[in-house]
Design goal:
With about 300 residues, the protein is α/β, with parallel strands linked by helices. The chain is about 25% helix and about 25% strand. The protein starts with a strand and ends in a 6-residue tail after the last strand.
């Protein structure tokens, strides 16, 4: 059975708190798992969330600040300790190659798994599979940072009433879907496009073109909202977003489910982030992320 959900492992900005671990987010996409920004403590959070090293197919690092990358050493060693039976691919900014190498070989261990390094060198597609296309877009932060986007290929939805009108049933439905035409009836006449699902992961950044491109039409958008709107100047100076800015991005992009995360320890009321995103005009579903919550992708668009 296919599962598409986000498992939140940590939500703190810069430093962990008593209630929030450093960053860490696992996207389950059918039979694959993509681990984004494993900060310090991610390996233990995986245990608490019921996530295994075997669940990881890709590591996706937005940038090399400690709260987004220090957990790489432990996660990579755990992948090898558990002898994960499939190859794992790591994506990260190419400018941080030396940081990745230091983390990958931080201590001695036995390598048992093929880990492919696939550094990001600019905007564009990183991988195409039958299940999704993974792409990256440059963000705006004091160090080079990229956001990631997964897009499922569009499919077709058969329309039973049109099939019945043309007398097409049983095995002939599958044949028409495969061949595109049957007895003079084309696939377009008895089906419609089913838009593929879209997911984006946007971490440390100011507002920029990359943010809007990543968010466009997303079913699920995970986006940093480090600061509240009253501290917008501070957010811009440090290369971050506010809750209101995140809400406006989601509103303008037609996002269905907005996940706010990466919260500064200076704030004591998590619900203030949702209030400000709502005040910015976003009317879709909002999750103010907490450690160890699971967020399913919304049902497919009608």
């Amino acid at each position: 059975m296919s599962v598409r959900e986000l498992v939140v492992l940590g939500t703190a900005s810069q430093v962990p708190t008593r209630h929030r671990n450093h960053n860490g987010y696992l996207l389950r996409w059918d039979g694959e798992g993509l681990l984004f920004d494993p900060g310090e403590g991610t390996q233990r959070q995986m245990l608490r969330a019921g996530v295994a090293a075997h669940d990881i197919n890709r590591l996706c690092v937005t940038h090399f600040h400690g709260d987004h990358a220090l957990g790489l050493a432990g996660v990579i060693q755990r992948i090898n300790l558990d002898r994960v039976p499939h190859p794992v691919t790591a994506h990260y900014p190419a400018s941080g190659q030396h940081f990745f190498e230091r983390l990958r070989y931080a201590t001695a261990y036995r390598e048992t798994v093929r880990l492919t390094e696939a550094p990001v060198t600019g905007d564009g597609v990183l991988a195409r599979t039958a299940a999704y296309t993974l792409e990256a877009r440059l963000l705006s932060h004091p160090v080079e940072s990229y956001g990631y986007r997964l897009t499922e290929p569009d499919g077709r939805r058969m329309l039973p009433e049109r099939l019945a009108a043309h007398g097409i049933a049983g095995p002939d439905v599958g044949r028409l879907a495969r061949e595109g035409v049957l007895g003079g009836v084309t696939l377009d006449e008895v089906s419609e496009v089913r838009t593929g699902q879209r997911f984006a992961f946007v971490m440390d950044t100011r507002l920029c073109d990359g943010v809007h491109t990543l968010a466009e039409g997303c079913d699920l958008l995970v986006i940093e909202s480090t600061f509240l709107d009253e501290d917008e100047t501070l957010a811009t100076d440090h290369g971050h977003l506010t809750a209101g800015q995140a809400g406006r991005v989601a509103r303008d992009a037609g996002v269905r489910h907005l996940v706010l995360t990466h919260f500064s320890q200076r704030y004591g009321d998590p619900e203030a982030f949702e209030r400000q995103a709502r005040a910015a005009g976003f009317t879709g579903e909002v999750t103010v992320a907490a450690d160890l919550v699971r967020v399913p992708l919304p049902p497919r668009r009608a």
